C-alpha cells in the first residue's frame, strides 16, 4: 500500500507503537550497561578502560553509519530497512548474551549498533509518512518522550537488572521485544516513496569520519581532559569537517543537502537541537556523580532524583505536540527553552547546590524539554520533503550526538574529572564548577529561545511534497 502525504493510514497508531518500542530500546541501550561495567570487567578480567568499549562501540557505530543509512533509506524501502534493523538489533543482543570473551561482547554491540542505526534513520521519517500534519506533532511528541525516557532511564534500569539477574539479562530482555517488533513492522509498515537522488557516498563517509572522531575525542576528554591525544583526535575531526565543507560545495547531490540549512524551519530547528543537547548533556553528565559523591546519596536515591526529569518530560511532551498541531511551534518551543533557562538559576546563582536545588532543576528542565523537543522535531520533519525524510531524520539523530559532544566538552572545560573524585576537596571544586556550568547552560537555553523567534511562523508548517 502506498502512502501519500494526504492519505490517512488507519493503522498509524499501531505503527506508532512499534516505532516507539524501537526508539525506546535503541536509546535505552546507550546507557543500560553503565552500572554493569564493573560486573563485566570482573567476569572477563579486564579493566574499566577496556570494558568502556562496550558502550563506546555501540555509540560510534551509530554515529558513523547515520549519514550513510539516512541517504540510502530514501532510495530503498524504509519498511524493510527498519524491520531488518530491529532484527539486527535483536540478533546483536542475543550474541551479547552468549559472548564468552570481551571482544565478542564488543563485536555484538557493533551488530546492535548497526541495527539501531537502521531504525533510527527511519523512525521519524516513518512517522512523517503515516501521520497527517495535524496529528504529526502529537505523534512525534510521543516519540520524543520514548526517545528521551530511554536515554535517561538506561543507567537506572540497567543497574536494577544487573543486580537482579547479572549483566547478560540487560541484553536478553531485548530479544523477545525485537522479534515482535520485526514481525509487526513487516506486517504493518506501509511502502513509502523512493527517491531517485544519487547517494553521495564520499560525502557520507567523510561526514561519518568527522562525527566519529569528534565524538571519540569527547569520550576521551572525560578521563584525559584536553590532553595531546584528545586534541589530536579532535583536530582530525575538525579537519574532516573542513574537508567535507569543501567537497560538498561542488556536489549536486551532497549528503549535507542544502535543505538542511536553506529551509528556515529545518535549519533553525537543527541549530536549536544542537544547542539544547549541549546544555542538557553538559548539566546531566556531572550531576549523577555530584549526587553520589557530593551529597552522599545512594545509587537508588540518585536514580530517583534523575528520574524526575524524564517523568516531567513525559507529561509535557504530548501537550507540546497537541499545542504545535493547533497553534504552531512558536510558543511551545520558546516557552520550553525559557523554562529550561529558569531551571538553572537556583544552582547558578546560589551557594553550594543542595538536593532541593537539583530536584527543582530536574523537574523544570524536564518540563521545558518536553515542550521544546516535541514541537521542534515535528516542525523539522513536517518541513522535510517526503523524498528526503530519512536523510533529514538521520541528520536529526546525528545532530543530537554532536550536541552531546558539545555538552561533554563544556562539562570537561568547567569541571574536568573532579566530579568522579569522592574527596571533599574535589567535590567542593565540583560544586563551584557546577554553578558556572549551569550558568552557561542557562545562557544557551536563552539563546535557543531567541533563535526560535526567527522562524517567524504562527501557523503550522505545511508538509513539503
Structure description:
There is one protein chain. Helices cover 79% and strands 0% of the residues. The two termini are 18 Å apart. α1 crosses α8 (133-165). Mean pLDDT is 81; it is low at 1-6 and 457-465. It is built from 20 helices and no strands. It folds into three domains: 1-199, MFS general substrate transporter like domains (Growth Hormone, Chain: A, Up-down Bundle), CATH 1.20.1250; 200-254; 257-465, Growth Hormone, Chain: A (Up-down Bundle), CATH 1.20.1250. The protein is globular, with a radius of gyration of 21 Å. It has 465 residues and is an all-alpha fold.
CATH topology of the largest domain: Growth Hormone, Chain: A
The overall number of domains is 3
CATH level-four homologous superfamily name of the largest domain? MFS general substrate transporter like domains
Which range best describes the helical content: under 10%, 10-25%, 25-40%, 40-55%, 55-70% or over 70%? over 70%
Average pLDDT rating = 81
Return the structural class: mainly alpha
What's the shape? globular
In the CATH scheme, the class of the largest domain would be Mainly Alpha
Report strand %.
under 5%
Number of strands: 0
Largest sheet: none
Order of helices and strands: HHHHHHHHHHHHHHHHHHHH
**Low-confidence segments, ≥5 residues, pLDDT <50?**
1-6, 457-465
Q: What is the architecture of the largest domain at the second tier of CATH?
A: Up-down Bundle
Annotation field: number of helices: 20
Q: Compute the gyration radius: what is it?
A: 21 Å
How far is the first residue's CA from the last residue's CA?
A: 18 Å
Amino acid at each position: 500500500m502506498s502512502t501519500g502525504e494526504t492519505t490517512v493510514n488507519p493503522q498509524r497508531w499501531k505503527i506508532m507503537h512499534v516505532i516507539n518500542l524501537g526508539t525506546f530500546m535503541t536509546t535505552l541501550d546507550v546507557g543500560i550497561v553503565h552500572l554493569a561495567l564493573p560486573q563485566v570487567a570482573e567476569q572477563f578480567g579486564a579493566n574499566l578502560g577496556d570494558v568502556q568499549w562496550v558502550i563506546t562501540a555501540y555509540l560510534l557505530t551509530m554515529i558513523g553509519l547515520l549519514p550513510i543509512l539516512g541517504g540510502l533509506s530514501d532510495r530503498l524501502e524504509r519498511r524493510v530497512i527498519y524491520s531488518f534493523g530491529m532484527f539486527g538489533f535483536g540478533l546483536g543482543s542475543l550474541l551479547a548474551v552468549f559472548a564468552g570473551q570481551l571482544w565478542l561482547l564488543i563485536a555484538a554491540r557493533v551488530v546492535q549498533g548497526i541495527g539501531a542505526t537502521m531504525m533510527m534513520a527511519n523512525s521519524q521519517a516513518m512517522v512523517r509518512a503515516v501521520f497527517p500534519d495535524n496529528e504529526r506533532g502529537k505523534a512525534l511528541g510521543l516519540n520524543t518522550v520514548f526517545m528521551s525516557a530511554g536515554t535517561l532511564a538506561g543507567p537506572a534500569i540497567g543497574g536494577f537488572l544487573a543486580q537482579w539477574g547479572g549483566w547478560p539479562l540487560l541484553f536478553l530482555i531485548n530479544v523477545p521485544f525485537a522479534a515482535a517488533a520485526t514481525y509487526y513492522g513487516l506486517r504493518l509498515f506501509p511502502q513509502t516513496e523512493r527517491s531517485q537522488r544519487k547517494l553521495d557516498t564520499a560525502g557520507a563517509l567523510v561526514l561519518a569520519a568527522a562525527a566519529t572522531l569528534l565524538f571519540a575525542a569527547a569520550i576521551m576528554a572525560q578521563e584525559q581532559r584536553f590532553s595531546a591525544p584528545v586534541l589530536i583526535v579532535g583536530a582530525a575531526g575538525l579537519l574532516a569537517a573542513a574537508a567535507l565543507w569543501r567537497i560538498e560545495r561542488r556536489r549536486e547531490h551532497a549528503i549535507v543537502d542544502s535543505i538542511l540549512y536553506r529551509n528556515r524551519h529545518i535549519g533553525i530547528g537543527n541549530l536549536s537541537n544542537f544547542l539544547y543537547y549541549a546544555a542538557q548533556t553538559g548539566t546531566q553528565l556531572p550531576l549523577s556523580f555530584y549526587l553520589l559523591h557530593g551529597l552522599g546519596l545512594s545509587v537508588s536515591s540518585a536514580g530517583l532524583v534523575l528520574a524526575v526529569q524524564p517523568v516531567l518530560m513525559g507529561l509535557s511532551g504530548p501537550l507540546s505536540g497537541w499545542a504545535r498541531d493547533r497553534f504552531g511551534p512558536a510558543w511551545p518551543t520558546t516557552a520550553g527553552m525559557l523554562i529550561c533557562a529558569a531551571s538553572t538559576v537556583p544552582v547558578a546563582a546560589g551557594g553550594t547546590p543542595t538536593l532541593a536545588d537539583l530536584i527543582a532543576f530536574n523537574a523544570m528542565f524536564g518540563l521545558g524539554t518536553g515542550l521544546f523537543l516535541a514541537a521542534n522535531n515535528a516542525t523539522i520533519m513536517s518541513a522535510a520533503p517526503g523524498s528526503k525524510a530519512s536523510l533529514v531524520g538521520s541528520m536529526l539523530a546525528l545532530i543530537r550526538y554532536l550536541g552531546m559532544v558539545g555538552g561533554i566538552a563544556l562539562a570537561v572545560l568547567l569541571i574536568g574529572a573532579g566530579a568522579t573524585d569522592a574527596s571533599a576537596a574535589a567535590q567542593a571544586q565540583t560544586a563551584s564548577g557546577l554553578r558556572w556550568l549551569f550558568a552557561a547552560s542557562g545562557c544557551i537555553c536563552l539563546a535557543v529561545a531567541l533563535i526560535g523567534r526567527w522562524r517567524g511562523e504562527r501557523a503550522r508548517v505545511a508538509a513539503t511534497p
